[in-house]
C-alpha cells in the first residue's frame, strides 16, 4: 500500500490536534493517526509525585524509536499497537490501542519535526503556528477539562518547562516544515490546500 505520511507539529495549543481531527473526520477510514503523546515513556518505577516532577517537553521524554517502528509497520501495511498514556496519572496504561494501516497516516506532536528519524519518514511536514497568548489559554482549558490538572500546576509547568523548551526545541523545528499554517485553524486558504493534496492522493492511489 502506498501511503501519504503527514507530520503535524506546533506549540502546545497551536491547533495541531484540531487539524488532525479535521483530517480524520473529513477523510474517515482513509486516515490513521499516531500521536507522539501516546509514546511518553513509562515510569512505573516512580511514585505519582515523582512523575509529576519530570520534564515532559524534551525529546528524551518520548520513546520516539518505538513510534518510528510503529510507523514503519503501518507503511508496510501491518497493524501497529500503540501505547495508551494516562495524563491524569502521568504514566502509561497497561493496555495498547490498535492502529490499522491506511492510505494517509498523520503523526502529530509538538516535537515530531524536531526528530530526524521522523522527518525522513514524512512526505509532508506541517507546522501549525499561533500566537503564544492563544496557545497558553487553550492549554489551560485543555489540561483542566481533559487531563484533570489544577490551574496552579498548569501555570507552574508552563512557566518552568513548556515555554522555555518551546523556544529551545519546538520553534526551531519550524525550519523543517514544508508548510507553515499561520493562525492555526483560522487559515482556511492553507487548510484547503492541504485538504486538496490529501484528496488528490486518496483519489489517485489504488487500495
Task: Tell me about this structure.
The protein is α/β, with parallel strands linked by helices. It has a single domain, classed as P-loop containing nucleotide triphosphate hydrolases (Rossmann fold). The protein has seven helices and seven strands; from the N terminus they run βαβααβββαβααβα. It has helices at 16-27, 48-52, 64-75, 116-121, 132-146, 151-170, 188-204; strands at residues 4-10, 31-35, 80-86, 91-99, 104-108, 124-128, 179-181. The strands form two sheets. It has a five-stranded parallel β-sheet with strand order 2-5-1-6-7, sandwiched between helices. The longest helix is centred in the C-terminal third of the chain and has 20 residues, at 151-170. The chain is globular and about 50 Å long. The mean pLDDT is 90.
Question: Using DSSP, what is the number of strands?
Answer: 7
The CATH architecture: 3-Layer(aba) Sandwich
CATH fold annotation: Rossmann fold
Count of helical regions: 7
Spatial strand sequence of the major β-sheet: 2-5-1-6-7
Largest sheet: 5 strands, parallel
The H-level CATH homologous superfamily, spelled out, is P-loop containing nucleotide triphosphate hydrolases
CATH class: Alpha Beta
How many domains is the backbone divided into? 1
User: What is the CA–CA distance across the termini?
Assistant: 6 Å
The SSE order reads EHEHHEEEHEHHEH
Question: In terms of quaternary structure, what is this?
Answer: single chain
